[in-house]
Amino acid sequence: EAGVAQSPRYKIIEKRQSVAFWCNPISGHATLYWYQQILGQGPKLLIQFQNNGVVDDSQLPKDRFSAERLKGVDSTLKIQPAKLEDSAVYLCASSLDLGRINEQFFGPGTRLTVL
Amino acid sequence: AQSVTQLGSHVSVSEGALVLLRCNYSSSVPPYLFWYVQYPNQGLQLLLKYTSAATLVKGINGFEAEFKKSETSFHLTKPSAHMSDAAEYFCAVQAGTDKLIFGTGTRLQVFP
Questions:
Q1: Contacts of A115 (CB under 8 A, 6+ apart)
Q2: What's residue A102's pLDDT?
Q3: Block means of pLDDT (10 residues each) for chain A, length 115 residues?
Q4: 8 Å CB contact of A106 and B49
Q5: B49 chain-A contacts, CB cut-off 8 A
Q6: Interface with chain B: mutation pick from A104, A105, A110, A112, highest number of B CBs within 10 Å
Q7: Do residues B90 and B35 lie in contact, with contact meaning Cβ atoms separated by under 8 Å?
Q8: pLDDT value at B54 more than 80
Q9: C-alpha distances out from residue A23 to A13, A28, A74, A106, B8, Å
Q10: Do residues A15 and A81 make contact, with C-beta atoms less than 8 angstroms apart?
Q11: Contact status, residue B56 vs residue B64, Cβ threshold 8 Å
């Protein structure tokens, strides 16, 4: 079974530029998560989708971050404009359905460096 | 509010020695607790999880953890460290919702 796919794996941009990350969850998984992992910290949830609807985006900086999951499968996370403090690894995870009984499976992440 | 505290950002052990990584949690409702491992340039992999069944949980790669409600702890142990265990380990809590709340991680180094 294929795992969670993310691209690109690495991205370097200058501050005030825009960037987008892509995630393809495990086939059949209804729930998708984006986490931000800053160096030296644990991952922090940015946004959670159930199919193409948002369940939780309370930690998403909505002035610069946006995310969508239009057809309930793939998802994109965008930052516009980027700031230095956005340098982090962005992890995508998916689970079969809502409910904490369902394990979250993580992708390899996209490492963003903002100069 | 839920949170986890991992004591010790770095732990070093010799190959064959006991591994002990500490995690304390705070939760107002019965929690689910997790340990994840992260190898360089890879995503998180689930080692084990506690979901209110047996308090001693066995995971992959010989790791286990014990849920102690009286101490609000969920420490991770392995009797004998292997070089391949070198990685970063994260404790996490889920309480009431799907959201995983992670600790700051412990980097394990294993010396020959």
A1: A12, A13, A14, A15, A84
A2: 82
A3: 91 97 95 94 93 92 94 94 97 89 91 97
A4: no
A5: 103
A6: A104
A7: yes
A8: yes
A9: 19, 14, 6, 10, 33
A10: yes
A11: yes
pLDDT greater than 70 at residue B53: yes
Residue B27: pLDDT band with limits 50, 70, 90: confident
Establish whether the linkage from the previous residue to B31 is cis, with ω within 30° of 0: no
- CA–CA distances in Å: residue B52 to residues A74, A97, A99, B34, B37: 33, 20, 15, 12, 21
Three-state secondary structure readout of chain B: CCEEEEECCEEEEECCCCEEEEEEEECCCCCEEEEEEECCCCCEEEEEEECCCCCEEECHHHCEEEEECCCCEEEEEECCCCHHHCEEEEEEEECCCCCCEECCCEEEEEEC
Q: Which residue in A43, A99, A111 is closest to B98 by CB distance?
A: A99
Whether the CB-CB separation of A81 and A18 falls below 8 Å is answered with: yes
* pLDDT at B20 > cutoff 80: yes
Overall average pLDDT of the B51-60 stretch: 90
Which residue bears the tokens 């294929």?
A2
Q: Which two tokens stand for residue A28?
A: 């059949």
A110: closest chain B residue by CA: B41
Dist. CA B89–CA A75, nearest whole Å: 27
Distance between CA atoms of A85 and B41, rounded to whole angstroms?
A: 20
Q: Do A43 and B90 touch (CB under 8 A)?
A: yes
